[in-house]
Design a protein that fits this description.
Elements (H helix, E strand, L loop, with lengths): L18 E5 L5 H13 L15 E5 L10 H4 L1 E5 L6 E5 H7 L1 H10 L6 H7 L2 E3 L13 E2 L9
Parallel strand pairs: 1-2, 1-6, 2-5
Antiparallel strand pairs: 3-4
Helix pairs in contact: 1-4, 3-4
Length: 152
């Protein structure tokens, strides 16, 4: 007889989600987004299971102060389409940052999550705010320091 390996399923008492606050001021966009996606997915926990939501909630503050390197501020394009013929709209990083700074971080993290119903569910656990204030004090979030600048 062969030994069957069972898929690990975490119990509901081990899956109580935490809330974290991350300050995005002067952080690199891509490195910050990968750290956030890891926490949302739950890959930083020993109870990680690929097909389940074992992640935590993440609150991002100061999204308007996120940093990019090189010429991305003027050359990186964000595209959206209305669904109508000729409905493609493009804008640069600096234009979008002045208009809706939260969307930059949201799109960077969303691109690193699974492209299925699990990814859409995980994306709802991300809360992004342009300024230093957030309305989630009742959840008692922990401050999480992420250093995305090497050598700093």
């Amino acid at each position: 007889m062969s030994t069957l390996t069972k898929t690990y399923l975490p119990s509901m008492d081990t899956m109580t989600p935490q809330w974290y606050v991350i300050d995005a001021a002067d952080q690199r966009l891509g490195r910050l987004a990968t750290a956030i996606a890891t926490i949302l997915r739950g890959k930083n926990k020993p109870t990680y299971t690929p097909h389940m939501d074992t992640g935590d909630f993440v609150i991002i503050v100061n999204a308007d102060k996120v940093a990019v390197t090189g010429k991305k501020r003027s050359q990186k394009l964000y595209r959206r389409h209305s669904g109508r013929p000729g409905g493609m709209k493009t804008e640069t990083f600096s234009q979008l940052q002045s208009r809706i700074p939260e969307r930059i971080v949201e799109q960077a993290v969303k691109g690193m999550l699974p492209k299925n119903s699990l990814g859409r569910h995980l994306f709802t656990k991300l809360k992004v705010y342009a300024g230093p204030e957030h309305p989630h004090q009742a959840q008692k979030p922990e401050i999480l320091n992420i250093n995305t600048i090497p050598g700093a």
